[in-house]
TrEMBL record:
Keywords: ATP-binding, Glycerol metabolism, Kinase, Nucleotide-binding, Transferase. Key enzyme in the regulation of glycerol uptake and metabolism. Catalyzes the phosphorylation of glycerol to yield sn-glycerol 3-phosphate. Residues 5-262 form the Carbohydrate kinase FGGY N-terminal domain. It is an enzyme of class 2 (transferase). GO terms for biological process: glycerol catabolic process; glycerol-3-phosphate metabolic process. InterPro entries: ATPase_NBD (IPR043129), Carb_kinase_FGGY (IPR000577), Carb_kinase_FGGY_CS (IPR018483), FGGY_C (IPR018485), FGGY_N (IPR018484), Glycerol_kin (IPR005999). This is Glycerol kinase. Its EC number is 2.7.1.30. Sn-glycerol 3-phosphate binds at residues 13, 83-84, 135, 255. Pathway: Polyol metabolism; glycerol degradation via glycerol kinase pathway; sn-glycerol 3-phosphate from glycerol: step 1/1. It comes from Haloarcula limicola. ATP binds at residues 13-14, 277, 321, 421. GO terms for cellular component: cytosol. Belongs to the FGGY kinase family.
């Protein structure tokens, strides 16, 4: 088995990564390519699905070449993806009818407010475990069908996209389904991605007729829903296609569930936080879908072939790593690595708080009209204070979610497993430990999102026999313990709520 591997396509918000793992879970090949972020209007975010597919092929070829690996050495391929991002495409041509609407996109906020006014929020939460929010795929699909300009060759018959959808001519899916379709020709998603559409009943484990009717989504558009690790496989790559080999595509998880899986959080009470563009804190709640009373989401954690679903509580924080990117965009820093040095150069923020609500606030506030806010500045405020306040905002948002998680689950957290690009920042990891007053464990392989989908695919084809083998692979790189006095942490956190209050309900039409 030493000369065979399992690979993962990790299609994220800002780019696409291809990684190859050996039996011990170590990375043996890695390639990455960014794609364009398209902002047609304020609060609108789109991606070009064709660019994503082209980049996927490029990084797979590049990764194999750089790693000196033949495609024939891959025993399985797993997929993980930015969740909620929605594509609608033509069944016959395989071409998208519009750019993908990205999870961050807020254009359907008005529609969500209609749902709230119509008293439909509780029904949506009960069935899907989700808050009614523009974050999810349901209103995005509805918007595309109602507003996208039909392609000229398609509209020659004078048919709207809705007419074409009802005629069975269109397909929709999250990015995993788009990639699986292009790799195998099959229209399939996994349970974790289905659970993020706001169209799927997570207890009945089926597309919900009432929600499909509410959002005008014809069931013929929807992918088949399969386990996250599927011994029946989603399909095989085309031997005449870009890889030149028939490789099983056998695992898929939305990126945050993939990180939960990659961090080997297989047992009830296990928790992890991934720091990427946003941050996503998930706790495994076992076979019970725990209802949140504190603004968290109830979601599907993962499902193995032939086994019951494992559920999770999730705190979705929309902007964390993207706040550091913003610092770079406005020339306060030259690169992300500089944040730790600048933040350390001052003892505190001097009372400055930054609320990075650039695309509204997620858990536990759920305010789509909140906007980014900096408060507490004086004439003596320097860029070092703003940089430090930005890093602190990541820690405060995580504490918001951690406290909600403990209240909902009744489980007191003693250690939090972390991953994602931002955890390379030791200052942030220590700050996080201080603010939530718990241990932080950073694993050796911090690309746990890609690792999780590789694990799911590898288990499906027997590359790994049991999850115990995966637990054995998990190794700590470094642990961080709270050094700050609890009273000081509480004092700093105490003004965070005041700052959040000032960001709420800001984006109002004049």
């Amino acid at each position: 088995m030493s000369d065979t591997y399992v690979a993962s396509i990790d299609q994220g918000t800002t780019g696409t990564r291809f990684m190859v793992f050996d039996h011990s879970g170590q990375v043996v090949a890695n390639a990455y390519e960014k794609h364009e972020q398209i902002y047609p209007e304020p609060g609108w975010v789109e991606h070009d699905p064709l660019e994503i597919w082209e980049n996927t092929q490029d990084v797979v070829r590049q990764g194999l070449e750089d790693g000196g690996i033949e495609a024939s050495q891959l025993e399985a391929l797993g997929i993980t993806n930015q969740r909620e991002t929605t594509v609608v495409w033509d069944r016959e041509t395989g071409k998208p009818v519009h750019n993908a609407l990205v999870w961050q996109d807020r254009r359907t906020t008005d529609r969500v407010e209609e749902l709230q006014e119509a008293g439909k929020v509780d029904e949506i939460r009960e069935k899907t475990g989700l808050e009614a929010d523009a974050y999810f795929s349901a209103t995005k699909t509805e918007w595309i069908l109602d507003n996208a300009e039909p392609l000229k060759m398609q509209s020659a018959r004078g048919e709207s996209l809705r007419d074409r959808a009802e005629a069975g001519e269109l397909m929709m899916g999250t990015i995993d389904a788009w990639l699986i379709y292009n790799l195998t020709g099959n229209h399939i998603t996994d349970v974790t991605n289905a659970s993020r559409t706001m169209l799927y009943d997570i207890r009945e484990m089926e597309w919900d007729e009432d929600l499909l009717e509410e959002f005008g989504v014809d069931e013929s558009m929807l992918p088949e829903v399969r386990p996250s690790s599927d011994e029946e496989y989603y399909g095989h790559t085309d031997p005449d296609g870009f890889l030149g080999e028939e490789i099983p595509v056998a695992g898929a998880l939305g990126d945050q569930q993939a990180a939960l899986f990659g961090q080997t959080c297989f047992d009830e009470g296990d928790a992890k936080n991934t720091y990427g563009t946003g941050s996503f804190y998930l706790m495994n709640t076992g076979n019970e879908a725990v209802e949140s009373e504190h603004g968290l989401l109830t979601t599907i954690g993962f499902q193995m072939s032939g086994e019951p679903v494992q559920y999770a509580l999730e705190g979705s924080i929309f902007i964390t790593g993207a706040a550091i990117e913003w610092l770079e965009d406005v020339d306060l820093i030259n690169n992300a690595a500089q944040t730790a040095e600048l933040a350390r150069s001052v003892d505190s923020t001097d009372g400055v708080y930054m609320v990075p609500a650039f695309t509204g606030l997620g858990a536990p506030h759920w305010d789509g009209r909140a906007r980014g806010t900096i408060v507490g500045m004086t004439r003596g405020t320097r860029k070092e204070h703003i940089v430090r306040a930005t890093l602190e905002s990541i820690a405060y948002q995580t504490r918001d979610v951690a406290e909600a998680m403990e209240a909902d689950s009744g489980v007191e957290m003693t250690s939090l497993r972390v991953d994602g690009g931002a955890v390379k920042n030791n200052f942030l990891c220590q700050l996080q430990s201080d603010i939530i007053q718990t241990d932080i464990a950073r694993p050796e392989v911090d690309e746990t999102t890609a690792l999780g989908s590789a694990y799911a695919a590898g288990l499906a084809v027997g590359y790994w026999e049991t999850v115990d083998e995966l637990r054995d692979n998990w190794q700590i790189d470094r642990e961080f313990s709270a050094e700050m006095d609890a009273e000081e942490a509480d004092r700093m956190y105490g003004r965070w709520d005041d700052a959040v209050e000032r960001s709420l309900d800001w984006a109002r039409e004049e």
